[in-house]
């Protein structure tokens, strides 16, 4: 009996140790970063605690835009050459649904409540709006020529869509699901970001010479300031306090840091080649930058304004998003 009790006791101890190890491992895993790889048709999953790729998930053809649900459970990938959205179960690490999304979806964004997914159709000149519970299309909204990216205002009332060939921003009323204004900007607009208070929007123009960042007064639907930046600016993000902007450049191969109050460049951080879209970790201590021609993601330490890691991913990474 004593031997049986010992064996049973040790089995219980081992089971508890394994359980604690699993819990510890799950707790130590940081928020995951997801990088879409245009030419390998997959998504690289990066553990931000140690900057290692922990999974590679096959998706549709030419994945580009990416959005993550607030509960971290779903990752939405726009596949430009297969005209659909791959829905990834983040815990399972695999695609669990595929939704038709119109012609050539590129940029995607979720409504603040997560109920709707907006997909920009580059070659279709439209925005497809989907119900995230069912994947059904709610509306198809005509914008202008060659729409690229989309951003939703902090209050969720409007969406901005950058139209590359038209050199405009389409303003969508998200309640009426229709365009209510078109704002002229510099040539070939790409990335868009709203200030945290929703008063301003920042838009990069890739083919302006030199590249520029436009500041839009959201209430007035007009550009109030344009500042020169580097060559081929694309992605732009804003800190939660609204004090700093970070702009990635496809040809300068750098991220510019901009004081949002004075609109002056305070730092140029060299990164990999063809730096496009970028994303913060939840604590905003690090910034992850998709560098397409380097087949890598550059990781910037925000405090020191230096690259602290280069993470090899798939072929031609386009965008990166991080669980918040």
UniProtKB/TrEMBL annotation:
<feature type="signal peptide">
    <location>
        <begin position="1"/>
        <end position="29"/>
    </location>
</feature>
<dbReference type="InterPro" id="IPR031815">
    <property type="entry name" value="DUF5074"/>
</dbReference>
<dbReference type="InterPro" id="IPR011964">
    <property type="entry name" value="YVTN_b-propeller_repeat"/>
</dbReference>
<dbReference type="InterPro" id="IPR051200">
    <property type="entry name" value="Host-pathogen_enzymatic-act"/>
</dbReference>
<feature type="domain" description="YNCE-like beta-propeller">
    <location>
        <begin position="21"/>
        <end position="113"/>
    </location>
</feature>
<dbReference type="InterPro" id="IPR048433">
    <property type="entry name" value="YNCE-like_beta-prop"/>
</dbReference>
<keyword id="KW-0732">Signal</keyword>
<dbReference type="Pfam" id="PF21783">
    <property type="entry name" value="YNCE"/>
</dbReference>
<dbReference type="InterPro" id="IPR015943">
    <property type="entry name" value="WD40/YVTN_repeat-like_dom_sf"/>
</dbReference>
<dbReference type="Pfam" id="PF16819">
    <property type="entry name" value="DUF5074"/>
</dbReference>
<dbReference type="InterPro" id="IPR011045">
    <property type="entry name" value="N2O_reductase_N"/>
</dbReference>
<protein>
    <recommendedName>
        <fullName>YNCE-like beta-propeller domain-containing protein</fullName>
    </recommendedName>
</protein>
């Amino acid at each position: 009996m004593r031997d049986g009790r010992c064996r049973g006791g040790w089995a219980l101890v081992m089971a508890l140790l394994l359980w604690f190890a699993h819990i510890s491992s799950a707790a130590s895993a940081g928020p995951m970063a997801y990088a879409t790889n245009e030419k390998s048709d997959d998504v690289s999953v990066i553990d931000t605690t140690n900057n290692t790729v922990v999974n590679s998930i096959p998706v549709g053809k030419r994945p580009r835009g990416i959005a993550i649900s607030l509960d971290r459970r779903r990752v939405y990938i726009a596949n430009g050459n297969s005209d659909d959205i791959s829905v990834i179960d983040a815990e399972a690490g695999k695609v669990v649904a595929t939704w038709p999304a119109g012609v050539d979806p590129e940029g995607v964004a979720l409504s603040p409540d997560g109920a709707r997914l907006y997909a920009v159709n580059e070659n279709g000149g439209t925005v497809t709006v989907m119900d995230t519970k069912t994947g059904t299309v709610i509306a198809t909204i005509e914008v202008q020529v060659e729409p690229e990216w989309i951003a939703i205002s902090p209050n969720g009332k409007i969406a901005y869509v950058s139209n590359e060939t038209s050199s405009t921003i389409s303003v969508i009323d998200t309640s009426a699901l229709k365009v209510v204004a078109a704002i002229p900007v510099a040539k070939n607009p790409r990335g868009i970001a709203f200030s945290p208070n929703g008063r301003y929007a920042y838009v990069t123009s890739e083919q302006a010479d030199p590249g520029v960042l436009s500041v839009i007064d959201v209430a007035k639907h007009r550009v109030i300031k344009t500042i020169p930046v580097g060559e081929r600016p694309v992605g732009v993000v804003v800190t939660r306090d609204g004090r700093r902007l970070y702009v990635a450049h496809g040809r300068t191969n750098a991220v510019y840091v901009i004081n949002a109050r004075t609109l002056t460049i305070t730092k140029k951080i060299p990164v990999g080649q063809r730096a496009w879209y970028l994303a913060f970790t939840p604590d905003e201590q690090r910034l992850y930058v998709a560098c397409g021609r380097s087949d890598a993601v550059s990781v910037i330490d925000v405090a020191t304004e230096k690259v602290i890691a280069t993470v090899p991913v798939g072929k031609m990474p386009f965008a990166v998003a991080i669980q918040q």
